[in-house]
Design brief:
It contains 13 helices and 14 strands. The radius of gyration is 23 Å and the shape is globular. With 363 residues, it is of the alpha/beta class. 42% of the residues are buried. Helix content is 41%, strand content 13%. It starts with a helix and ends with a helix. Helix 3 runs antiparallel to helix 12. It folds into 2 domains: 214 residues, Periplasmic binding protein-like II (D-Maltodextrin-Binding Protein, domain 2, 3-Layer(aba) Sandwich), CATH 3.40.190.10; 115 residues, Periplasmic binding protein-like II (D-Maltodextrin-Binding Protein, domain 2, 3-Layer(aba) Sandwich), CATH 3.40.190. Strands 1, 2, 3, 4, 5 and 13 form a 6-stranded mixed sheet that branches.
C-alpha cells in the first residue's frame, strides 16, 4: 500500500512539473539550467561601449534573474578584441559571451577557434521557433557555417545619405547619385570609411548598388570631409556646417532631436538600397572554454527573448523579432522580405575591398 501511495505521489509530482513547464513555455529541464546558472552566480560579457548598451544588457536581465550577476566589459571592437586575444594566448579564459558586430568578431576569433557552436544555446520555444523572427531563425546567422555567430537585431542599410533639409532644397537629393552634382562639392561629411563602422558600411552598400566607379568619383571629386567622431559628424549636419552626411549614426541624431534640434535631418528613401541591412552591434557568440556555461545559456535565451529584445531596442536598434516594436520604424526590417546582411561573413571580402579603395583615395 505504501509503494502505491509513493508511486501516485511521484506521478502527480511529475504531472505538476510538466504542467508548469507547459504554462511557462519552457522545456522541462529549463529549471535545472537556471539552477545551475544561479550556482555559477555570474555571466561575463564583452559588449559594445556606452551607457545605453550597458543598461540594455544589464538592467532587464538582473530583474529577471537577480541571483546571476552580469560582468560587462564594454568598449570598441578593436580594444576588446586585442585584450581578449591577449588573455586567451596566455591561457586565461575570462569571458562567456561576445556581443558586438559580426565582422570584427568573426575576423578575430574564428581563425583561432575562439567560438563554440551557438546553436545549443537556443532552448526556449520563443527563441528557437521561426515564427518569432523576421527571416526565421536561420536568417540571423552571420557566419558561413551558420552556427557560430547570431545576429538578432539591426536596421535597413539604405539610409546612406542624410540631409539637413533646412539648408538643402527639398527634392534636390533623391538618391546618392545626386551627390555627384558639383554644387555639393565640399558640403558632404562622412564617417571614416577606412575603418570598420557605418561609414564603411554605407560605402559598401553604395558600391553594391551603383558600382565602384561611382564611389571613386564621390570620394575623389566631391572633396568629402572625413571624420572618425560620430557625434561630431551629426553635430556638423544638424548645425549646417556640412548639410549632407554619409555614415551618420542614428543614435546621436536622436539625442539631438530630443533636444529640439536637427528635426529636419532625414534620409531620402532609395528603393535600390533597401534590400540590405546592417546588424550593427547586434550579434552574439559563445566563447569556447566559457567559465559560466549555464549562466551564458540563460543569458542568451533572455537576450533573444521578447523581454531582452525590448531592452535592446532602447539602444536605437531594431530587433529582428516580429513581436518587438521597432525603435526606428523607418529603418525596420519587414516580415516576408528577403535581405542581405552587409556585416555577414560572406561580405567580408567586399568590405575589405572597399576599405582598401577608400585608403587609396583618401591618403
Amino acid at each position: 500500500m505504501f509503494n502505491k501511495v509513493l508511486f501516485l505521489a511521484l506521478v502527480f509530482s511529475l504531472a505538476a512539473t510538466a504542467a508548469r513547464a507547459g504554462e511557462s513555455g519552457a522545456p522541462a529541464n529549463w529549471g535545472d539550467i537556471v539552477k545551475a546558472a544561479e550556482g555559477e552566480k555570474q555571466v561575463n560579457i564583452a559588449g559594445p561601449p556606452g551607457d545605453a548598451f550597458r543598461a540594455a544588457l544589464n538592467d532587464g536581465f538582473k530583474k529577471a534573474y537577480p541571483k546571476i550577476n552580469v560582468e560587462l566589459l564594454g568598449g570598441s571592437g578593436r580594444d576588446k578584441v586585442a585584450r581578449i586575444l591577449r588573455e586567451r594566448s596566455g591561457g586565461v579564459y575570462n569571458w562567456d559571451l561576445y556581443i558586438s558586430g559580426p565582422t570584427s568578431a568573426l575576423a578575430a576569433f574564428k581563425p583561432v577557434n575562439g567560438f563554440d557552436s551557438f546553436r545549443p544555446m537556443f532552448v526556449l520555444p520563443e527563441v528557437k521557433e521561426d515564427k518569432y523572427w523576421i527571416g526565421g531563425v536561420e536568417g540571423g546567422w552571420a557566419d558561413l557555417e551558420k552556427k557560430l555567430y547570431y545576429t538578432f537585431a539591426g536596421t535597413l542599410a539604405g539610409d546612406n545619405v542624410h540631409v539637413n533639409w533646412d539648408i538643402v532644397p527639398a527634392g534636390s537629393i533623391k538618391t546618392a547619385l545626386d551627390l555627384l552634382d558639383p554644387k555639393w562639392t565640399g558640403k558632404i561629411v562622412m564617417q571614416d570609411p577606412r575603418v570598420e563602422g557605418k561609414g564603411l558600411n554605407d560605402a559598401l552598400v553604395l558600391s553594391l548598388v551603383y558600382g565602384e566607379d561611382f564611389l571613386r568619383k564621390l570620394l575623389r571629386d566631391q572633396k568629402v570631409v572625413i571624420t572618425g567622431d560620430r557625434r561630431q559628424l551629426v553635430e556638423w549636419v544638424v548645425r549646417g556646417r556640412y548639410p549632407i552626411a554619409l555614415g551618420l549614426n542614428d543614435y546621436f541624431l536622436t539625442t539631438f532631436k530630443e533636444k529640439g534640434v536637427g528635426k529636419n535631418v532625414s534620409a531620402p528613401v532609395d528603393p535600390k538600397t533597401q534590400i540590405y541591412w546592417s546588424s550593427g552591434s547586434s550579434g552574439v557568440g559563445l566563447f569556447n572554454r566559457a567559465p559560466h556555461p549555464s549562466a551564458a545559456k540563460v543569458y542568451a535565451n533572455w537576450l533573444l527573448s521578447k523581454a531582452g529584445q525590448v531592452e535592446w531596442t532602447k539602444t536605437q536598434n531594431n530587433s529582428r523579432r516580429v513581436d518587438v516594436p521597432p525603435s526606428e520604424p523607418a529603418t525596420a526590417l519587414k516580415p516576408g522580405q528577403n535581405y542581405r546582411n552587409t556585416q555577414a561573413e560572406d561580405m567580408i571580402p567586399a568590405r575589405q575591398k572597399i576599405e582598401a579603395l577608400a585608403k587609396e583615395i583618401l591618403q
